[in-house]
Amino acid sequence: MPATARGRILPRSLSRSTAYAGLSTHAKVLYPLLMANADDQGRLSADPHHLKWEVCPNVEEITPQEIPGLLAEMCRQKLVCAYEAQGHPVVQLLTWWEAQASMQWAYPSDFIPPEGWDDRLRFRRFGRVITINWPGSANGSKDIPLSELARQLSFSESLNIALGKTIGKPIGKLQKEKEKEKETTPPVVPPLALSDELPKWPRWLGTLQELEGWPQDAAANEDVQKKTQDGFGHLNLEEEAQKFVWHWQDSRRKLKSARRAWWNWLGRAKGKEQHGELESGPEEIEAAKRDYERRTGKHTG
Predict the structure, then answer these.
(1) What is the pLDDT of residues 202-227, one digit of tens each?
(2) Which of 15, 62, 63, 130 is the most buried (most CB within 10 A)?
(3) How far, in whole angstroms, is CA 180 from its chain's centroid?
(4) CA 282, 283, 287, 293 torsion: positive or negative?
(5) Which neighbouring-strand residues pair with 132?
(6) CATH of domain 12-97
């Protein structure tokens, strides 16, 4: 699950924007709230009830029934693009990168982009910083080109689209080539360099590595893996890691020492278990997921 920035920039130019001035009063109220709640690529679900309760729940004057018309106003003023992605209504803010040019990190969206839109990405994955279309940065991850990343790793659909545009070849075709190589390459041939360089971390540790502020060097993560498994291996680490990440993504406090915070988190979970207070299972993780989505408006998939 991608990280989302705490704050968004509302540009000063909006005050004198003729496009914004052409909106009705309710649309003028809604538009900045879309900006404040969009994901890192400037997209949101355009489902009227979702927008109402996640973007403007306390604005009683704006009803779910009114929202499609307000979005249509913004489309006419070329402030947003409303489209359908995989059967779900989506809205893209068209001035997103003009307003959010100071962003340091931008994770992939849960929604594929509208036709003709290029995502800009700078995010952590598998212990690496990956950049795509990011101003001032080369595409790829250090010495690993994007084409190699695309061949070796599985990404979300929106990220696959950005990769395919940058590489100039559909990701599906690259993955078919990868499968063909597996069929024709003898098993004795050593794996590609990327496979050697990307540590095979357990799933729970991979989840932690996507949290901003988490150490990215292999030695630190090996230390976390050993100490966690030695002291807390009896806990459901995948569930605890996901809840830990959601907690800090939704927190206003700055994460000063990620590893120490993680061990403190596990210590509390262990204490709850000893006192019979820890409910481990799919119901608890689903409850945490719903609570996170309710408070942030971010889909976790």
Answers:
(1) 888 888 887 878 887 788 888 888 88
(2) 130
(3) 31
(4) positive
(5) 121
(6) 1.10.10
